[in-house]
User: Which sequence fits this backbone?
């Protein structure tokens, strides 16, 4: 089985600050208010990638949220377990003799729930505690900590990226939403927030990065599920969703969707 203590540490971003790029920073709650008119993507930086969903608070299940806004909003462990079911065979620590549900799923859930609990703490500061706690939570998993550690770290990192991405998105647009051309005074930021989160989430899942008619139709179909308590119809939400989609696109090299932005 290919598995060493540091297999998954190579190539990581070392918990870099999303603004300064300095290693060892953990900017949970860091917003983009200090970066002037830069796009929200500039605050997310290299931390951006496919992100998960959150549950909790009064919003139900939503396509992303910000840990800084409500401690009740947590990355959904069930959704993350489903995500890793499709990804585990691509990871360097994967052992085909092991069963996903019995062996790996408990480690992914453990990493997700641990990051939900340890707001703002570095992996390096909590790893020893997680090692000690593995025996209590592993259930029927046959993985010793040396085997479960990298899967737990994978889930921790993705959960951390989810929290930081939505925190930056919320903070950026909360300061600017009422200056946008599409803004309507009848609506508050609580109405626009789900649209910005939806656009950010959708862009993170897109393989092409292209906003076209097919993308727009798909997002329109999903808006009723993503809107939560927002009063915006799709007609009113669309431009905010597009704004967040392109806000993320501007952090990527080149013009990913060839729209001239």
Assistant:
């Amino acid at each position: 089985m290919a598995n060493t203590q540091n297999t998954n540490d190579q190539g990581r971003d070392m918990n870099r600050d999303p603004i300064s790029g300095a290693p060892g920073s953990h900017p949970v709650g860091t917003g983009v208010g200090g970066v002037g008119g830069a796009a929200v993507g500039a605050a997310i930086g290299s931390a951006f990638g496919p992100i998960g969903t959150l549950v909790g608070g009064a919003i139900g299940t939503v396509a992303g949220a910000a840990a800084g806004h409500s401690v009740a909003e947590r990355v959904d462990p069930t959704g993350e377990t489903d995500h890793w079911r499709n990804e585990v065979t691509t990871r360097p620590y994967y052992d085909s003799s092991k069963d996903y549900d019995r062996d790996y799923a408990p480690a992914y859930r453990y990493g997700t729930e641990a990051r939900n609990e340890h707001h703002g703490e570095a992996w390096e500061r909590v790893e020893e505690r997680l090692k000690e706690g593995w025996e209590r939570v592993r259930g029927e998993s046959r993985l010793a900590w040396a085997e479960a550690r990298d899967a737990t770290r994978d889930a921790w990192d993705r959960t951390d990226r989810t929290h930081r991405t939505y925190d930056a998105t919320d903070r950026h647009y909360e300061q600017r939403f009422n200056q946008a051309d599409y803004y309507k005074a009848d609506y508050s930021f609580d109405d626009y927030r789900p649209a910005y989160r939806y656009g950010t989430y959708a862009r993170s899942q897109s393989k092409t990065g292209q906003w076209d008619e097919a993308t727009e139709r798909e997002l329109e179909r999903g808006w009723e599920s993503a809107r939560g308590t927002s009063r915006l119809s799709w007609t009113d939400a669309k431009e905010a969703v597009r704004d967040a989609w392109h806000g993320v696109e501007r952090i990527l090299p080149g013009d990913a969707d060839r729209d001239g932005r």
Observations:
- Residues 7 and 151 are 10 Å apart (CA to CA).
- The chain has one domain: 33-249.
- The mean pLDDT is 77.
